[in-house]
Every structure is written in structure tokens, then in C-alpha cells.
Amino acid sequence: FQLCQEESWRTVFTLAFQSLGVVYGDLSTSPLYVYKSTFDEDIVHSDTNEEIYGALSLIFWTLTLIPLLKYVFIVLMADDHGEGGTFALYSLLCRHANLNSLPNSQLADEDLSGYRKDVIAPAAPSGTIASRLKSVLEKHGVLRRILLVLALLGACMVIGDGILTPSLSVFSAVSGLELAMEKEEHRYVELPVACIILIALFALQHYGTHRIGFLFAPVVVAWLLCIAGLGLYNILRWNTHVYKALSPYYIYVFLRKTQGRGWMSLGGILLCMTGQSCWCSEAMYADLGHFSQLSIKIAFSFFVYPALILAYMGQAAYLSQHHGILRVGFYVSVPDKVRWPILVIAILATVVGSQAIITGTFSIIKQCSALGCFPRITLVHTSSKFHGQIYIPQINWLLLILCLAITLGFRDTRRMGNASGLAVITVMLVTTCLMSLVIVLCWHKSMVYAIAFLLVFGSIETVYLCASVTKFLEGAWVPIVISSFFMAVMCAWHYGTLKTYEFDVQNKVSMDWILGLGPSLGIVRVRGIGLIHTELVSGVPAIFSHLVTNLPAFHQVLIFLCVKSVPVPHVDDKERFLVGHVGPRGKRMYRCIVRYGYRDAQKDDVQFENELVGSIAEFIRATNSDDDDDMVVVGESSVTAVRQEEEGDGNDDGIVEVVREIECVVPEKKRVRFLVPDSPPEMSAEEAEMMELMEAREGGVAYIVGHSYVRAKKGSSLVKRVVINLVYDFLRRNSKSPIDALDLPQTSTLEVGMVY
Length: 756
Fold this sequence. Notes:
By secondary structure, the protein is α/β, with parallel strands linked by helices. It has helices spanning 9-23, 25-28, 34-38, 50-73, 86-97, 113-117, 129-139, 141-174, 177-180, 190-203, 216-238, 249-258, 260-269, 276-279, 293-319, 339-370, 393-410, 413-441, 447-469, 477-506, 511-515, 542-550, 605-622, 685-699, 718-734, 738-742; strands at 380-381, 390-391, 524-533, 553-566, 577-581, 589-597, 632-634, 638-648, 656-665, 671-677, 701-709, 749-755. It folds into two domains: 20-494, Up-down Bundle (Amino acid/polyamine transporter I); 508-635 and 685-755, no CATH class. It has 26 helices and twelve strands. A hairpin with an 8-residue loop joins strand 1 and strand 2.
């Protein structure tokens, strides 16, 4: 390991400790249910313990090859500026191979520092396999759509895992009541207790985790120490030769003896990786950017991984001497004296692990929405310090309802495990496919490395996937149904969004029509700023002509505002605004494109309005261009003071000079002041433009937003009519409107209705 110059060992170990509560909570609770799910296939155990040794060998090599080798030492290096998951990999591919599916992308977006920072190798020379592969992907729209669907599939399966994992983890933890309570009482307690914990977990989501997040790491550390200590105790007491099971020879013996039942049991084995779908996707939800790669590697390699191996070895040692009680699960290997404390710590650990996957689910839905693949939703930022801690009310209650339905419907960990296993392994296989492309297109490595990565890890995951699919009727159908539902929603929304944007592009207002606007046509310019929201990054939207046709007046200053997302996690404040003129300078029409990364939080209306006007003022000061295509990047600024000062010059005629001051604060805390007199003898074009902007700002800001009704064209196929007229229309009516998404004041908003 090489330490960065700014990192010290103390910092690294502190981050490694903190990462345990954020990243590994779910993975650490997998010993609660792995053996129980594995041996639910009625496998007969011989006195040689070859079946138990075979299961332990499978667990050991699966944990070693997939979480340790694949994710910690390979996939972790492909993070997108500290963000992980299928969308992070897809974002990397979009930037390196021009695969961006966003309709309003621009060449100017490629000048963002977020695009340039991740180029870790020079461009592949022409004629190489990498350059040819890039050309093929860029030329064929079908391949680009396949990659998008693949990324969406991974996202949908993570959402499915966000429903299944809390149910499985919590129910497995409270199953210890079976041994801790007498007689049949546990049957009347387990299910209600599990439901109460789930309801409390989701009901407290809107408070966020920043107030109790400091407890997450100690809880996970305590749990890992407990299972490691129990494992070591069981090894020393029951079977000190269990280490022999680490030989891959026992995998062959296990599959040869158990045959079909052993094949089916692989669905239980893969649960030892539960949490990896969350970790590789979004369990780094809040602050992987605050955790270095080194701290993540140290935490897993030197603490989580050894603790899990000891836990599984200890359970195997105990079970090798107790063949008749395999169905009871984890708690049978726990001594009676410590069973209640272990039960309490297990429940706390499952709550921490469930919290990570729930917040990860919120995060990935936010990413999908930002990239135009999910309807606009209500986002609540539960912490002002950590941008990743968000809460989505609609999704939260939907997850709760589905979690309770899974818990009450299945009532056993076997079918829950079958469902969760399919979701986990699907996300892993999607990650493997995308990662193989990243190796070639982003890292510019030889195709041999990509093929080797795909064959080694893809073959292992395909075996597990096939074993999981065979349990379709025993619970594995659940993630398929859930992911199919969310996939249909995402595809319908993305398709409708693209078609709506295409309609806007085809019906743009011509510049000749703009130049012809004036008093001769009865057009009146009223005082104030008109802020017209549009998805277009060039041209004038049709809603403007529709507005002027029905209401022949518009504001003295017009700003065509486009708020869009770009395929990078964060956009630097200095690169937020892209400003330019629309038409001649004298028309006082501007275009302002505000760019956000898919993990950025948008500003509230007051702060955003001030920054927008400040960016226009900075643009006027910085350029004299009249060209609509000459867009200038303006640092995020805010108008902090607009005041009038009246000063007499001592003359008898009482002439008063009115001076207005605009003060812009840029991110580096520099203050730029420019004073413009009201009526100078010879006012320059820049001063006149600044004067008019200031007067318009004093007159107030009106927000003009298009309210579109989308319908399929006549002659469209039945599928398109269903998608547009029913599905997309339903989603639009039940999602946040542009007014709500921008948090605009209702009293200053004018909606312009149009049929698309």
C-alpha cells in the first residue's frame, strides 16, 4: 500500500474504522443465514463431514475471489470520483466512449474538470482493439441502448435487494428467539418483533443518520468481534482440523456427492456475499469520497474478511459434531450464557446493515432521476453537511410496504434467501460486464485483461446465477417481478423524455422570428426578469412563441434557463453556470445552462435566483459577444448587495446622482464590485446592459414554465400508444412538476400549456 502525501497512518485507520459502519454492515450479518439456507436442501450428512467441509470451502473461495479479489482490489479502483456502482461504471463509459444517453448533452460538458480528472491513461491509438471497440459502440445505437438497459438492470436489482435484505437480515436476527425462549412462544413473537423493527427502521428514515451515524461503526465492530470470537471458540472446542476444508478439493467432493441438491444449495452459498450488491453499488452512498481506497482495503482485508472466515469456520466446526440440528441456523453454535447479548448485538447490526442498503436505494433512485431514467421525485436532504444523506418519502413507504409483504408472506429465511441471492448475483454479473469494458475503454489495457476478467469472474457468477434461477418458484421470482416493474417505469420514462425533447428540438422558434419582435407587432416589454425554463440547450423553445402569441408582452430581460444533469458525480461551483446571449445584445435575452452532477444537491429558490442573476452580471462584465453560440463558463456567484445611494454634489440645482452597486461573491471569496451611474454622459454598451439588468432585478423575477400534455402521434403502434398515452402520462401526472422540482415560488410562476 502506498500512502498519499496528505494522508497519515492515523487518518487512514480512522477512515477504515468509520467505513465499517457505512460499507460493511450488511455483509457482516451474512453468517446469520448462510448455513441455514445452504442446508435447507435436505442434504444428508456423512460421518466424514465432507458435505460441511465442502460448503465451508465454497464459502471461503467465494469470499476470497469475489469480495476480496474482484471488488476490493479491482472494481474499487474504477470508482467515479469516489462514487461506486453500476451507474458509476456506466458514467465512466459514457465519458470515455461518448455513450451519453442524455439528450441535452453538449461538447462544452466535456470541458468540465470532472471529465478530465478521470482520464488516467492517454487515449488509445487508432487501429487498436480499444479504439475499434469504441468506434463500434459509438456508431451503433442498439449497443448504446443495451449498455443503458444493463446499467438500469443493475440499478433495479439493487432496489430489489433494498427490499429483500432488510427483511432477510432482521428476520434472521430475531430467529434467535427460537432458542432464547421456551416452548412455542417464539412463534408468536418472532414475526411481530421483525415487523415492529422494520416499521421503526423506515419510520425514522426522515430524521437521517447523521445524528446516530457515529454509533454505526462501533456496532459493526462489536458484531464482528463477537462472531470472530465465537468462531475461534467453536474451532478450539469442537474441531481444530476444520482448516482442512479450505482446500478446494472439498468443493469437488461436495458437488460429486450431493449432485442436484448440492447444485441447488449454491443459492444459499452465494448469500455470503450479500451486501456486495449494496457495497459495489451504493452502500458507499454518503461518503466514499470521504473514505480513501486504502482505508476501504485495510478495513476489509485485515478485519472484515478474517472475522467472517473465522465465523464460518467456527459454525462448520460446531456443525461437524452436531449433524441433527442444522436447520436451526446461526444461534445453535452460540453458548447459552451469551445468547441474549449476541441476539441484541445481532439485531443492532442488522439495523445498521439495512440502513446502508435503504439509503443506498434512495441514492441510486436519485441518480436514475438525475440521468433522466426515473420520474422527478421529492428529495429531502437530511443533513446539511453530508450531501449523500437523502430521504425520498414515496420510495421509503413503498419499500416499507414491500418489506412487510415479503416478511409476512414468506415467514422463513429460505425463500427470502433465494430471492435476495438472485438480486445479489445479478448485480455482480452486471458489474463484471461493465467492468470488462472499463478495463479496455477507460484504462486502455489489453483486451486480454478484459477477457480474463470476464471469463474468471463471469463464469463463477454465471454458475451462481443458474443455481439461483432454478429456485424461481421458491422465492427467486420476487426480485424478477420487482426489477421488471422498476425497469418498465425507467424505460417508459426515459423513452417519453427523449421523445419530448425531440419535439422541442423540432419546434424551436427561428431567430428571424425573434429579431422581428418589437413595438410594431404590438409587443410590450414589461419591467422585471422573465425566467423561462426549458430543456433545450440551444434555440428558443416553442412555449415562448406560444406565450407571446396569446399574451403579447414579455419582460425587459429574458433568461432561457436550462437546468440539466451531466454524467459526472459532482460539478465544481466554478463551472456551474454556462451563460450566453440569445440574439443581438440589445434584445436583452440570455441563455443560462446550470449543470449539476448526478450526486449534487440543487439550491433553493432564493439562493439559486441570486446566483443566477450574479452569473448574468459576471457574464456581461466578462464578454462583449453578441453570438448566441458563444457560451461562457461563469463561476457560481451570488448577488449579496444591491443598494442605491443618493449623493448630492453640492450644486444649487440639486442634481442627484444615483449609483447602484452589484457585488458578486465567487467561490474563492473574491469580491468584484462594479459601480454604474444611472445617467452618465456617455454610457457604454456594457454599462447600459448592466443598468438594465439591475433595474429588471429590482422589478422582480417571474418564472415561466411549460406545462406539456404528451400524446402519441396518430398512426403510432399499439405499444407506443400504451407507453406514451398511459404509462408515461400516468408517471408525469404523479411525479413532481418542473415547478416543484425547481422549488419555484407559486406566486411568481406562469404555466404555459402545450400539447406534445
